[in-house]
Specification:
heterotrimer; A alpha+beta (551); B alpha+beta (102); C alpha/beta (168); A: 551 residues; Sulfite Reductase Hemoprotein, domain 2; 4 domains; six-stranded mixed β-sheet; five-stranded antiparallel β-sheet; 21 strands; globular; B: alpha+beta; 2 helices; NiRdtase/SiRdtase_haem-b_fer (chain A); metal-binding (chain A)
């Protein structure tokens, strides 16, 4: 956990005061809606179909138990008793009143939580691997660098009114759980041949209307140069990014139009002028931030303790264990994913009671730490293996032990037309209906790893382009239609899905997805060939033939 | 699709002007009394583009009560009651189409 | 529109002159960039101060050859959401070494005053009178700044470091 100090607390209190004053000025008429909108957005406040929505950042996906409990409190007191975890390590409350927002924000600020820069044309909440600090795969804890970027980007005077929003993601593991290749800037932390830490820098990735996989503009950036290099990128983008057309304002369009090489050249030229300046990170500065991350005092434990071995004789526990428990870097410990995708429920939603249960479990078994991943699931990153059976019993009692992580009904979905003012079509009920088709979890396990991603409009909050199966809602003559893509992926081999065929109606989607999956089951080379690999081997044609012949 | 606020105005049937209330975001409808109501039954209904433009312009004059005003289709039932005219507006009136977490 | 300099509302001694209007004799003038570049040679000999309005879509580096004959640079925010002039301001101060008055003009609102000040603007032409009156409050709302910028405020990284070094 990163421990906030008095500076951070003072800043958050000042921010809440500023927003309180802005709300007063808005309600009095001193601020017009046009003037107020960017200010509220930069505090995470949207106006959606039914009400205001508050989006709260979970910086680099890390929460402590008290923070999660406070979110449960906000859900109960100011909202309708639940929250929605998003694909960007945020949580959203859907039914909040403008008049009560400053109060809710003050309650959150007391535990170091806020909605700053979760919207608006600024540098957004920096995201990373939800297994940071716990997985044996990484070369360093990427949250150190995410925190340095969080501080750097918070209320940045030069980069608060960019051409468009700006999203940075960091991975420090070979297996990319942070989707770094589809961000405005993706940072891959690794060590060079000399053993020094640095970043590969990718720019111009992103989904939305014009999806691109990011381009590498620097294979190795020493970590001490992180801020000066990011500032150079931001300065080039702020000056030359398009502002004439909102749909062409993201950095990916600039990179695409002038070419990655020319863009890199402009960045390097700017960087040369500032790299030795105030943004140069000294060892002391890095150590200062690193020192504020407090790691659990792990006990010396053996892997596979007797409690675990005994519990694995229970088939239900064993199924959950194989699905939701992952290898930890410390012997005798595990990383546990908590599925927020019980079959038939809105993906990523958690009730206030469930938040409290998870907070208690984190306190009782997991050093008080909770993580949120872009797949809209939660994670307890530091669980002693001997505690797994008891943890599972308590999760199960709260409806939080659905063993479907990474399976066909672990669906990513944006809020869609049921909540969102931008959406064209619903996403959540589509996800619910598909999940129900595969409610037999033995069948789902037989299918294996398969990510279905659903967006209710072209803005792609559901990351449909990078779903193994992607579903995009569109509107035609007042009716909901859905385009299906196959073969997308968000990991280190990121690629955009290929369109399967003509869009189909709302009612047809679940059946069509079932046909796609059945086709895979028939065509796969064997149980070990994953869906994504079968699509890579055969292309979408065989799927198209089978699926559209049936409809 | 652009949000309804950004669309060109086409009127092929009864329409009303809708927005969200400034203080809490609640869905409201423009009334013939130049105010706002949370009840669609109290909405001013017009059927021509000129009337819709006039109703919208009046609604946009002041952004302190309701914000984001736009013209939305409605349906008039056989019994004279007014219903929202498309899925988006039905959801705005009735809430999400699935059971909310509880 | 009230003009604020270093926290105080001041009289604007520069007269804005259009591209086709005659320059008033002996008065400090603020002119558009096209006219400034077109008449650069003749303006050299002018005895009274000249300021330029530099648009936000023209690279600020191009102003470098003219800096020593300028008495004011005005940068433009066509709408407050267009933030290009923040970068221009920082480059003027930090790269090109401009020490003269730097004015924020256009759709300049209270909630951006602090960002402008931190980016190197020392003159702010506020759209609303009430905003100008609230200048002091607007730029002193925060006591904590996370990143170094053009102003002298210490960034949090360095404040923290200072504390570590002092062992407090």
């Amino acid at each position: 956990m990163y421990a906030y100090d008095e500076f951070d607390r003072a800043f958050l209190a000042e921010r809440v005061d500023e927003f309180r004053d802005q709300v007063v000025r808005r309600l009095s008429g001193a601020l017009t809606e046009d003037e107020f909108k960017p200010l509220r957005l930069m505090n995470g406040v949207y106006l959606q179909l039914h009400a205001y929505m508050l989006r709260i950042a979970i910086p680099y996906g890390t929460l402590n138990a008290d923070q999660l409990r406070r979110m449960a409190h906000v859900a109960r007191t100011y909202d309708r008793g639940y929250g929605h975890f998003t694909t960007r390590q945020n949580i959203q409350f859907n039914w909040i009143k403008l008049e009560e927002l400053p109060e809710a924000m003050a309650a959150l600020a007391e535990v170091g939580v806020h909605g700053i820069q979760t919207s608006g044309n600024c540098i957004r909440n920096v995201t990373t691997d939800q297994w940071s600090g716990a997985t044996p795969e990484e070369c360093d804890d990427p949250r150190i660098w995410a925190e340095i970027l969080r501080q750097y980007s918070t209320l940045h005077p030069e980069f608060t009114y960019l051409p468009r929003k700006f999203k940075i993601a960091i991975t420090a593991a070979a297996h990319d759980r942070a989707a770094t290749k589809v961000h405005d800037v993706g940072l891959r932390l690794h060590r060079n041949a000399q053993g020094e830490l640095g970043f590969e820098v990718l720019v111009g990735g992103g989904l939305g209307r014009t999806p691109f996989v990011g381009k590498s503009i620097r294979p190795f950036l020493p970590v001490r140069d992180l801020l000066s290099y990011i500032e150079a990128i931001m300065r080039v983008y702020n000056q030359y990014g398009r502002r004439d057309n909102i749909y062409k304002a993201r950095i990916k369009i600039l990179v695409h139009e002038i070419g990655a090489e020319a863009f890199a050249k402009a960045v390097e030229a700017e960087w040369e002028a500032i790299r030795g300046g105030a943004l140069h990170l000294t060892d002391e500065m890095i150590a200062e931030i690193r020192g504020r991350f407090i790691y659990p005092a792990f006990q010396a434990l053996e892997d596979d303790p007797a409690e675990l071995v005994e519990a694995l004789k229970d088939a239900r526990f064993a199924t959950w264990y194989r699905n939701s428990v992952h290898k930890h870097k410390v012997p005798g410990h595990s990383i546990v994913t908590i599925s927020l995708k019980p079959v038939g429920a809105p993906p990523g939603d958690a009730t206030a009671d469930q938040m409290d249960v998870v907070a208690d479990l984190a306190d009782d078994y997991g050093f008080g730490e909770i993580r949120v991943g872009h797949e809209q699931n939660l994670c307890l990153p530091n669980i002693a293996q001997k505690d797994l059976p008891e943890l599972w019993r308590r999760l199960d009692a709260a409806g939080l032990a659905t063993p479907n992580v990474n399976l066909v009904n672990d669906i990513i979905a944006c809020p869609g037309l049921d909540y969102c003012a931008l959406a064209n079509a619903r996403a959540i009920p589509v996800a619910q209906e598909i999940a129900k088709r595969f409610s037999d979890l033995d069948r789902a396990r037989g299918i294996g790893r398969l990510h279905i991603n659903i967006s209710g409009c072209i803005n792609a909050c559901g990351h449909h382009h990078v779903g193994h199966i992607g579903i995009l809602g569109v509107e035609k003559n007042g009716q909901e239609f859905y385009q299906i893509t196959l073969g997308g992926r968000a990991d280190e081999h990121a690629q955009l899905g290929t369109l399967l065929g003509p869009a189909v109606s709302y009612e047809q989607v679940p059946g069509l997805i079932e046909d796609v999956v059945d086709t895979y089951m028939e065509l796969r080379a064997g149980p070990h060939e994953l869906f994504i690999d079968t699509v890579a081997r055969l292309g979408v044609e065989p799927f198209k033939e089978r699926v559209y012949a049936a409809h | 699709m652009a949000a309804p606020q950004q669309q060109k105005l086409k009127v092929n049937g009864p329409v009303a002007v809708t927005a969200n209330r400034l203080t809490d975001g609640a869905v409201v409808w423009r009334t013939s009394g130049e105010g706002w109501s949370v009840d669609l039954a109290e909405a001013a209904i017009v059927t021509t583009a000129d009337d819709a433009i006039a109703l919208l312009a009046a609604a946009q004059k002041r952004d302190l009560d309701a914000v984001g005003a736009y013209v939305a289709p409605v349906v008039i039932e056989a019994d004279g009651s007014v219903k929202p005219g498309n899925l988006r507006e039905r959801i705005r009136v009735a809430g999400p189409t699935f059971e909310l977490p509880h | 529109m009230p003009l604020i300099e270093n926290g105080k509302i001041i009289e604007d001694r520069f007269v804005r002159v259009g591209d086709d209007e005659a320059l008033p004799e002996g008065a400090a003038v603020l002119i558009g960039v096209d006219r400034f570049l077109r008449e650069a040679e003749t303006l050299k000999g002018r005895q009274a101060p000249v300021g330029v309005i530099w648009p936000n879509d023209r690279p600020i580096a191009e102003i470098a050859p003219y800096l020593d004959r300028l008495s004011l640079i005005a940068l433009v925010f066509p709408i407050f959401r267009d933030g290009r002039a923040y970068s221009q301001a920082r480059l003027l101060r930090e790269r090109l070494g401009w020490r003269g008055p730097l004015r924020a003009t256009g759709n300049v609102l209270r909630d951006q005053f602090l960002l402008m000040e931190r980016s190197g603007f020392d003159q702010i032409e506020a759209v609303k009178g009430a905003d100008a009156d609230a200048f002091d409050e607007a730029v002193h709302r925060y006591t904590v700044f996370y990143q170094p910028a053009t102003d002298e405020r210490p960034s949090l990284l360095r404040q923290r470091l200072g504390r570590t070094v002092r062992g407090v």
